[in-house]
């Protein structure tokens, strides 16, 4: 295997890692603040993919505007879902999990009825090859990787430096103390749910042109997200970053040499071994 092939694999691994992180960070954000496991998180990723198909592929809306529309529309829809459904199940992991399973079926079947059973293709937003030092890279995958990194950085800035982000961190540390300080718990929970699902929708737009769009595309993604947050530590944002990069490199490197079932076996074997020695994950807190 030559240098160019190795670098291409590294770029693909980094791209997958960034987008896995983007999706899993939204799931981690929801769990940290609402203390629920939203199994329907992958369906918001799927809705983002269909947003890309409708606006970018069919209506020829600008690609970056499509990303913004996906975040606003799907994030806004998620806020409504949180207020109507998940608000009453905060801090109730099992009931919320069961409700989210029903939401998975409703959303996926709705998209199947609207768009049919066949996979939808989204045209490449950034065609072409870029050459750096004699090495060739796909422009599309390079931009997707960069966009993933930018969005992760923006989320970090939002959580770290904005008033809403500080309120979110206060809730994760001590909800009662945050309430006494005047933090609007209901508002922050809705915003956290909307931002988390909006990030998943953007990931759906970014990956829509790389892979495909279908009503079932959320299922494998939610499994990857759970693997990431287990690897990194449930509720840990830094752990989510580390877990996403690890899984992205394992998935891409292993798939070059092994079949998909063998890659799956390796991934879950790694999880089992990790949980034996570190039940809280790599960066999880006791």
Structural notes for this entry:
With 286 residues, the protein is mostly helical. It has one domain. The protein is built from eleven helices and two strands; from the N terminus they run ααααββααααααα. Strands 1-2 form a two-stranded antiparallel sheet. Helix 1 packs across helix 9, helix 5 crosses helix 6 and helix 9 packs across helix 10. The N and C termini lie far apart (43 Å).
- Mean pLDDT metric: 85
Approximately how much helix is present in the residues? over 70%
- Strand fraction equals under 5%
Q: How many individual helices?
A: 11
Task: Note the main attributes of this structure.
286 residues, single chain, mainly alpha
Q: What is this entry, summarized?
A:
The protein has 286 residues and is mainly alpha-helical. The chain has 11 helices and 2 strands. It has helices spanning 3-34, 41-58, 63-84, 93-115, 139-161, 163-173, 175-180, 185-208, 218-232, 237-257, 260-277; strands at residues 129-132, 135-138.
């Amino acid at each position: 295997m030559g240098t160019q092939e190795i670098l291409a694999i590294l770029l693909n691994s980094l791209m997958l890692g960034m987008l896995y992180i983007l999706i899993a960070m939204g799931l981690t954000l929801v769990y940290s603040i609402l203390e629920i496991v939203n199994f329907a998180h992958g369906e918001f990723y799927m809705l983002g993919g269909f947003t890309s198909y409708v606006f970018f592929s069919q209506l020829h809306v600008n690609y970056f505007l499509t990303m913004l529309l996906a975040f606003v529309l799907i994030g806004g829809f998620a806020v409504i879902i949180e207020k109507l459904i998940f608000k009453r199940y905060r801090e109730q992991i099992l009931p919320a999990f069961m409700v989210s399973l029903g939401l998975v079926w409703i959303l996926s079947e709705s998209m199947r009825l609207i768009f049919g059973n066949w996979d939808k293709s989204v045209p490449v937003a950034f065609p072409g090859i870029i050459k750096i030092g004699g090495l060739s890279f796909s422009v599309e995958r390079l931009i997707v990787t960069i966009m993933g990194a930018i969005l992760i950085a923006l989320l970090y800035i939002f959580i770290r430096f904005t008033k809403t982000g500080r309120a979110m961190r206060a809730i994760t540390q001590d909800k009662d103390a945050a309430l006494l300080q005047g933090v609007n718990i209901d508002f922050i929970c809705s915003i956290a749910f909307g931002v988390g699902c909006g990030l998943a929708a953007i990931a759906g737009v970014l990956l829509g042109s790389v892979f495909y769009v279908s009503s079932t595309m959320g299922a494998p993604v939610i499994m990857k997200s759970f693997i990431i947050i287990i690897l990194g530590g449930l509720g840990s944002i830094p752990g989510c970053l580390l877990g996403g990069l690890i899984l992205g490199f394992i998935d891409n490197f292993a798939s070059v040499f092994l079949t998909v079932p063998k890659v799956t076996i390796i991934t879950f074997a790694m999880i089992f071994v990790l949980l034996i020695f570190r039940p809280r994950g790599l960066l999880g807190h006791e």
